[in-house]
């Protein structure tokens, strides 16, 4: 039911009401029955002179289009959608078109949002007492934000290339004049407070983020200190730097405030004692030794009795310890010895921290106590940034938090943030829970159960709880936890360590994680926050009662929480490194299979020791990370829940889930998931076990040697011997397997292709896939050499697979890629090029696979290779004789062909009479290339041996060009060409392959079923053929008078294309259809005389779409 | 993983030598600053060029105000690039801010650097009791205030431009102001720089360093170069060049 405009206006501030009026005008003008969000957008975009929406669009727009274009597109899209709205005849004298339900809903949403604004909170509370909520006046900005949430509106923006989340961010981001919150009291710190100060007398706005560097630096320093503290070796940080002392102080302050967010989880609850003053007094004022002694005893006692991870002994500035006079030196000696003893006795529970302002001071200290670095297990930590000078309040505010009120706004964090923001998320996790942590501490101190301090950090990715449940461990652990608080805390520590590691991994070694990692991070804080909420409400020792996870009478939150405490138990013993490798793997499949594997492992473990589910779950949440949470409903709890739902399934995306439903849903969907995994895996197993002799359904009988041979020869005619061996072996293996009914019949066949002719090898492998498995899809291709080659300009040979590999499986190891592919398509040819370049992991994996018939990935998960055919290639042979790098006597080396790229081909026309160089600039480029490239000269000869040059006396040309080119020697040399050459010439595999891998290689080669030697492909013959083809065509069309020069690159490209192509007559066809047309066009356009030189060159710089060498569909004329 | 970073920071590897040479630009410029000297190094080095994240040529959205709060974050970037390129040894040329980054990077991973060439480096810009960094705190504050004023001008000039999107001139201006190095970023980075103090850690540098100091440097007094030379763990040469 549409709402009358007047009613809607009541909910709006004058500014917003004005906007609504404009929208109504638009709707009326268009004769529409209702005023919708689209009308509102139209009005917002066009009317107001300083339209904030328009301005936000300007900042949020896609950088790849011109702003003008994109605004035009937006207007167009908008008007189109408006046109689609059916217009109705308004009754004469009727009122304004009423506000549609969707727009009204947007207003309501913004009301709700605004109500949650902290700075409005007091205001609205007062109002609330007096009257109903409806009188919350919606401000324009909130209205815009809500309208942008409207699916219709976001579609329109989407069509114009905007993303509404970007626009929302732009609106929220600090262009301060947009944020007009009146403020009468000192509100909590929020983004808007930072960016605007509404007091008229003061500066009208401040720079965004201007307060940040200080406090974040503080956090940064603290974080780094924390990193040192958790290490096993060098765990006692010695801060070096002018501001080191300040950094230490802020670290200690942070410890005292229990602001553990910045620190690694396992350090939460760390105690601290400062002996700096005592030490300096003792040394400088000659205090009595007893005093110092009692102080140290005190410290020792503290260590013994302290809960949590331990005690930090803050020694402060080390300067007093290097005082010069004898008495002081003795005192310093005493202190140092005592401290050393303390560390010896209490080992893992005591940390020392100290500072020196200058490194030189440390050196002095070192010269006095030479073994101190070892005794104290010191780690120097350079501190270079000034400590936070802003108030504490700053550090508690974070962008993350400030966004919380805008529910749903953060639903796609990875969209909002560029790749550089990895650590940001990590940091924000900590910030998010700082505040809560403090409250928790208060609660706990009342409750007096110390273990739960750390407890709140148990984090855990929630759905895995259900795993715990599955493990039939219901309740046991939690009860135990209650009984033994100390044990709990110890376990928490382990758990924290693990999580901390995860966080660090993400944070440090992958400063630029991909989207899925963002997701993980963003989920984490929410879960914590959520859990905290519960924690607070909860009595510390009612774990057992909470543990009724599945019972419907507890609220959802409680259930989750109780499960979390169970997690805590189960995780704590797990190995810290299990989950990491998975984090970067977006593949659901592997995750799932891992899940299964984990769960099966559980069974092996003693009951109660559910280590694995946890890690598997963190994985699953990564995999499903795409399902980003929406949290349109109420503030903290909902946010937590919304995100909480994310790891499991998409169906949970619906906002406004009731609390009770959620955990259930999770468990349901999860177990469903799990089951399906089970099923699929078992299917898979069934499949692989049932068809140990793969069914090559019809079409082709693998036992038929002749059929196979014929099919292969058709494709790769020149490798007859090799083909014969291959097809024999395959036929033989298949028969063998069929006859064998042993316990583990092996269906896998291993080939090793040695020698040159990369094209041929690959073609045969592809053909095998086509024949045996009936599809090119069943061809898993990986070049083991390409993995390290980030900066090497890779040979363009077969880019598709390689690029696919690079893009999709970036960050995956080779074995993971292979295992993943194999689990997807068990019936495959696995084609591994340059097996001699395999890294250790791949080596061991391959060796195991060839022995056991199971291919294991980097996590030890195995995939059956029963139905696969492995083909490894190498230029390397048994006798360490390197075939591929042996001196090529041919003119056209395989390397050069492999390097060919898919350039467009261009015809240039030059004139013989003029100076060749000056008449056409591209000549010099052409020749310069030739010079840099020894092959060119060969090519020249090749050409001259052809009748083209024979018929024309002009060998001179070549000479002249040669001369000219000398001047251009290396300036035009493209860098990558050199590199490639370098790698080509400079990697005789004998050198690069270490002894170790050589041994492996020989061992491996011995085990393969068949080693096949390939003959070098006669590229020269093909080159001759190509040249002949081209020159024939040229002479036919242009005649014999003109001279044709062909860039060697053109020839190489044509050859490469011919080699890659499946058809036989590809070159002939191309010459006939494309090149000859180009010649004809040239003939028409230029008046070719006997003095003309026609040049066929590659046009580098514009690569054709696919990088693969191909024959360009048309010739460019110049 | 590294690829994203390499792309984002416009990493280029050029040249035909064997040894790696990293050229890192200073505040307010980008890798094009090296354009004129590249030809001299090209034949004998493989030159790694990259833009620091605040450079105008890098997508400003990638500048994370919460991450780049200290030089350590830039060091992370540099090391990540070198790791992604699988560089195991390299010489490093850093100008101003990048010189500081190089110092910190070499402290963290001394084995990675054969040599540091520090151009216009300063461990600390602010004056201290017995240290002349060239700036007084009050001066800095003035500079920042001026920058903020500029920012304000930028912001207030922004809206009218956005509206006049139909006027080509305005559009051009619009995009120009929008896509050059954002003033908020440059201010932020400047603050980070002025908040850094490397004096205490210079001794930790265990890599041969070469200090290049121009005679007329507005931001770094010559005394700073002397200070550097005195305190660096292993200064090899101190060069002084007239401009």
Automatic annotation (TrEMBL), chain A:
InterPro entries: AAA_lid_SMAX1, ATPase_AAA_core, Clp_N_dom_sf, Clp_R_N, NBD_SMAX1-like, P-loop_NTPase, SL_signaling_regulator. Signal peptide: none annotated. Residues 8-177 form the Clp R domain. Keywords: Repeat, Transcription, Transcription regulation. One of its GO terms (molecular function) is ATP hydrolysis activity. Residues 603-612 have a biased composition (Basic and acidic residues). Residues 603-633 are annotated as: Disordered. The keyword Transcription applies. It holds the Pfam family AAA_lid_SMAX1. PANTHER family: CHAPERONE PROTEIN CLPD, CHLOROPLASTIC (PTHR43572), PROTEIN SMAX1-LIKE 8 (PTHR43572:SF49). Belongs to the ClpA/ClpB family. This is Clp R domain-containing protein. It comes from Liquidambar formosana.
TrEMBL record, chain B:
GO terms for molecular function: hydrolase activity. It comes from the Eukaryota. SUPFAM superfamilies: alpha/beta-Hydrolases. Keywords: Hydrolase. Residues 21-136 form the AB hydrolase-1 domain. InterPro entries: AB_hydrolase_1 (IPR000073), AB_hydrolase_fold (IPR029058). The keyword Hydrolase applies. Belongs to the AB hydrolase superfamily. This is AB hydrolase-1 domain-containing protein. It comes from Liquidambar formosana.
């Amino acid at each position: 039911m549409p709402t009358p405009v007047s009613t809607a206006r009541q909910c709006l501030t004058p500014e917003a009401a004005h906007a609504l009026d404009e929208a109504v005008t638009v709707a009326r003008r268009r004769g529409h029955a209702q005023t919708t969000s689209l009308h509102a957008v139209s009005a917002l975009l066009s009317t107001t002179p300083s339209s904030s929406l328009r301005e936000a669009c300007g900042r949020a727009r896609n950088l790849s289009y011109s702003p003008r274009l994109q605004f035009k597109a937006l207007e167009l899209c908008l008007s189109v959608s408006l046109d689609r709205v059916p217009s109705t005849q308004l009754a004469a004298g009727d009122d304004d078109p009423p506000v549609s339900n969707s727009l009204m809903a947007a207003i309501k949403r913004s009301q709700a949002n605004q109500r949650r604004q902290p700075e409005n909170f007091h205001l609205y509370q007062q109002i609330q007492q007096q009257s109903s909520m409806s009188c919350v006046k919606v401000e324009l900005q909130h209205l815009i934000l809500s309208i942008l949430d409207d699916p219709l509106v976001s579609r329109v923006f989407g069509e114009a290339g905007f993303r509404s989340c970007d626009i929302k961010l732009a609106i929220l981001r600090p262009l301060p004049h947009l944020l007009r919150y009146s403020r009468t009291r000192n509100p909590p710190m929020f983004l808007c407070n930072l960016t605007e100060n509404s007091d008229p007398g003061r500066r009208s706005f401040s720079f965004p983020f201007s307060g940040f560097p200080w406090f974040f630096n503080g956090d940064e320093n603290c974080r780094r200190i924390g990193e040192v503290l958790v290490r096993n070796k060098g765990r006692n940080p010695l801060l070096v730097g002018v501001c080191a002392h300040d950094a230490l102080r802020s670290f200690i302050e942070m410890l005292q405030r229990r602001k553990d967010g910045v620190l690694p989880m396992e350090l939460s609850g760390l105690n601290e004692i400062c002996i700096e003053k005592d030490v300096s007094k003792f040394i400088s004022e000659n205090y009595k030794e007893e005093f110092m002694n009692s102080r140290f005893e005190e410290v020792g006692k503290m260590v013994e009795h302290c809960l949590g991870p331990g005690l930090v002994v803050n020694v402060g500035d080390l300067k007093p310890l290097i005082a010069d006079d004898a008495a002081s030196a003795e005192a310093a000696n005493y202190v140092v010895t005592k401290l050393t003893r303390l560390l010896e006795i209490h080992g893992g529970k005591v940390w020392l921290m100290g500072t020196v302002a200058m490194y030189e001071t440390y050196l002095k200290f070192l010269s006095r106590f030479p073994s101190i670095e070892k005794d104290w297990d010191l780690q120097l930590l350079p501190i270079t940034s000034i400590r936070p000078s802003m108030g504490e309040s700053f550090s508690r505010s974070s962008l993350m938090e400030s966004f919380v009120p805008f529910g749903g706004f953060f639903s796609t964090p990875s969209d909002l943030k560029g790749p550089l923001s990895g650590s940001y998320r990590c940091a924000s996790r900590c910030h998010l829970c700082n505040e809560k942590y403090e409250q928790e501490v208060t609660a706990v101190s009342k409750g007096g159960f110390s273990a739960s301090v750390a407890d709140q950090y148990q984090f855990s990715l929630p759905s895995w709880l259900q795993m715990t449940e599955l493990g039939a461990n219901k309740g046991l652990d939690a009860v135990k936890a209650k009984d033994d608080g100390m044990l709990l805390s110890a376990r928490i520590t382990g758990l924290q360590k693990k999580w901390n590691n995860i966080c660090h991994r993400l944070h440090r070694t992958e400063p630029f994680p991909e989207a899925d990692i963002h997701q993980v991070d963003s989920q984490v804080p929410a879960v914590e926050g959520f859990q905290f909420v519960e924690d607070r409400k909860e009595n510390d020792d009612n774990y057992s009662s909470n543990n009724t996870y599945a019972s419907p009478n507890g609220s959802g939150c409680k259930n989750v929480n109780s499960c979390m405490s169970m997690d805590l138990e189960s995780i704590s013993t797990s190995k810290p490194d299990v989950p990491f490798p998975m984090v970067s793997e977006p593949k659901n499949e592997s995750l799932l299979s891992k899940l299964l594997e984990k769960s099966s492992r559980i069974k092996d473990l003693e009951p109660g020791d559910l280590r694995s589910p946890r890690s598997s779950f963190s994985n699953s949440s990564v995999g499903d990370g795409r399902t980003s949470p929406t949290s349109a409903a109420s503030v903290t709890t909902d946010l937590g829940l919304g995100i909480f739902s994310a790891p499991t399934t998409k169906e949970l995306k619906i906002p406004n889930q009731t609390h009770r439903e959620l955990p259930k849903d999770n468990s349901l969907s999860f177990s469903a998931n799990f089951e399906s995994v089970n099923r699929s895996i078992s299917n898979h197993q069934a499949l692989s076990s049932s068809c140990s002799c793969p069914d090559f359904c019809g079409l082709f009988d693998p036992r038929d040697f002749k059929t196979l041979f014929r099919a292969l020869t058709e494709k790769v005619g020149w490798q007859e011997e090799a083909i014969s061996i291959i097809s024999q072996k395959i036929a033989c293996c298949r028969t063998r397997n069929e006859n064998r009914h042993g316990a583990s019949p092996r269906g896998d066949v291993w080939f090793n292709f040695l020698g040159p002719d990369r094209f041929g090898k690959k073609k045969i492998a592809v053909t095998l896939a086509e024949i045996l498995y009936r599809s090119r899809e069943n061809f898993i291709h990986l070049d083991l050499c390409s993995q390290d080659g980030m900066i090497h300009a890779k040979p363009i040979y077969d880019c598709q697979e390689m690029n696919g590999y690079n893009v999709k499986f970036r960050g995956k190891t080779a074995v993971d890629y292979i295992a993943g592919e194999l689990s997807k398509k068990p019936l495959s040819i696995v084609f591994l090029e340059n097996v001699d370049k395999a890294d250790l992991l791949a080596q061991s994996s391959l060796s195991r696979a060839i022995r056991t018939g199971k291919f294991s990935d980097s996590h030890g998960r195995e995939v059956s290779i029963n139905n696969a055919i492995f083909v490894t290639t190498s230029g390397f042979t048994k006798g360490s004789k390197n075939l591929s790098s042996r001196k090529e006597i041919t003119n056209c080396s395989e390397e050069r062909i492999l390097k060919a790229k898919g350039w467009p081909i261009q015809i240039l026309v030059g004139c013989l009479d003029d100076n060749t160089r000056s008449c056409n600039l591209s000549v010099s480029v052409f020749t310069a290339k030739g010079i840099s490239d020894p092959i060119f000269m060969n090519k020249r000869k090749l050409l001259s041996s052809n009748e083209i040059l024979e018929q024309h006396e002009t060998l001179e040309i070549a000479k002249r060009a040669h001369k000219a080119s000398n001047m251009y020697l290396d300036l035009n040399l493209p860098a990558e060409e050199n590199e490639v050459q370098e790698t080509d010439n400079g990697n005789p595999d004998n050198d690069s392959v270490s002894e170790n891998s050589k041994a492996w290689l020989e061992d491996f080669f011995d085990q393969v079923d068949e080693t096949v030697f390939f003959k070098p492909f006669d590229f020269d013959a093909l080159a001759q053929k190509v040249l002949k083809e081209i020159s024939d065509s040229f002479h036919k069309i242009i005649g014999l008078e003109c001279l044709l020069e062909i860039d060697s690159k053109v020839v190489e490209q044509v050859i490469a294309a011919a080699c890659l192509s499946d058809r036989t007559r590809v070159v002939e066809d191309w010459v006939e259809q494309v090149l000859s047309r180009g010649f004809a066009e040239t003939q028409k356009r230029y008046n070719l005389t006997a003095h003309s030189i026609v040049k066929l060159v590659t046009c580098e710089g514009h690569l054709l779409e696919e990088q693969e060498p191909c024959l360009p569909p048309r010739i460019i004329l110049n | 993983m590294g690829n994203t970073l390499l792309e984002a920071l416009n990493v280029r590897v050029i040249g035909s030598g064997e040894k790696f040479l990293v050229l890192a630009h200073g505040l307010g410029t980008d890798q094009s600053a090296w354009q004129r000297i590249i030809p001299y190094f090209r034949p004998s080095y493989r030159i790694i060029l990259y833009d620091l994240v605040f450079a105008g040529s890098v997508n400003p959205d990638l500048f994370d105000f919460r991450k780049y709060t200290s030089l350590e974050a830039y060091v992370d970037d540099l090391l990540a690039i070198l790791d992604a390129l699988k560089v195991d040894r390299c010489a490093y040329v850093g100008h101003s801010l990048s010189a500081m980054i190089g110092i910190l990077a070499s402290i963290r991973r001394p084995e990675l650097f054969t040599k540091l060439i520090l151009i216009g480096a300063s461990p600390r810009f602010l004056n201290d009791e017995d240290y002349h960094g060239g700036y007084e705190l009050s001066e800095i504050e003035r500079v920042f205030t001026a920058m903020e004023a500029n920012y304000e001008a930028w912001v207030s000039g922004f809206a009218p431009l956005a509206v006049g999107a139909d006027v080509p001139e305005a559009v051009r201006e619009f995009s120009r102001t929008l896509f050059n190095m954002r003033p908020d970023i440059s201010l932020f980075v400047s603050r980070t720089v002025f908040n850094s103090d490397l004096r205490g850690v210079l001794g930790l540098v265990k890599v041969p360093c070469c200090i290049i100091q121009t005679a007329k440097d507005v931001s770094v007094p010559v005394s700073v170069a002397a200070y550097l030379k005195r305190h660096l763990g292993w200064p090899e040469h101190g060069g002084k060049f007239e401009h």
